[in-house]
Specification:
By secondary structure, the protein is an alpha+beta fold. Helix content is 29%, strand content 19%. The chain contains 7 helices and 12 strands. The strands form 3 sheets. Strands 1-2-3-5-4-6-7-8 form an 8-stranded antiparallel sheet. The N terminus and C terminus are likely disordered.
């Protein structure tokens, strides 16, 4: 992927800055991942033609905005919050094939962005203990109930995939989250928190990426998880 040191750090803000036709092509990429679990540039040709945009130029714009990244052979590798490659965070949306999420927060965001119930399967990266989150309407159930999310980032420059996604992980409890952070000094606190002493239990989620249509999806009232 190209260096994105000057790219905005908000996926939603980047999407909102796109021209309308490119924004709609971006939504088509996201819908493709939701419906098929993967997308190839050739799948986007009919949409690009209908929108009157040059597909190569559109994909270049999406890559420059750090929204969509393609492999030389044409496969879409990254379209936040989705990944073509397995990441250890798998989202099973009701009525759709399993999809890989770029990070723990993206996994939580996919059911919200798509307006679909589902199950998230992940694991503590240090112990391998399975972590499962169920979403039904606005209700969330965490297994184990002590599970938390570490939201951190590295100090290096580049795309969100390079600097942020690998540092946002599920952990079985706060003790294991502290241990993980102590074991990885290269992981820095994000400016927006939480850090070691403020790991989220009831996590209020932002809108990730963009809505798949122009009609907004209602925000959740809460995510059921461990309390501080």
């Amino acid at each position: 992927m190209p260096d994105q040191s000057d790219a905005p750090q908000s996926v939603a803000a980047s999407a909102e800055q796109l021209p309308p036709a490119i924004r709609e092509l971006h939504r088509a990429v996201l819908r493709g991942f939701r419906d098929s679990g993967r997308v190839h540039r050739d799948d986007l040709c009919p949409t690009a033609a209908a929108l009157g945009v040059d597909l190569d130029d559109a994909l270049h714009q999406l890559g420059s905005a750090d929204l969509v990244h393609s492999a030389p052979a044409g496969q879409i590798e990254v379209a936040y919050p989705f990944s073509r490659q397995p990441t250890g965070h798998t989202v099973h949306l009701t009525g759709h094939p399993p999809v890989a999420a770029m990070c723990a927060i993206d996994a939580l965001g996919i059911p919200l962005m798509t307006g679909t119930d589902g199950v998230i399967d992940s694991a503590d990266p240090d112990t391998g203990t399975p972590i499962r989150i169920h979403r039904h309407s606005d209700e969330w159930t965490w297994q184990p109930a002590t599970a938390v999310v570490v939201i951190a980032q590295t100090d290096c420059c580049g795309t969100l995939a390079d600097t942020l996604c690998g540092s946002i992980t599920f952990h079985t409890d706060q003790q294991h989250a502290h241990w993980h952070l102590d074991k990885h000094p290269e992981i820095a606190r994000p400016h927006h928190r939480p850090g070691r002493r403020d790991l989220p239990g009831r996590l209020r989620l932002p809108r990730l990426a963009c809505q798949l249509t122009d009609r907004p999806t209602p925000a959740p009232t809460h995510v059921r998880g461990p309390t501080h």
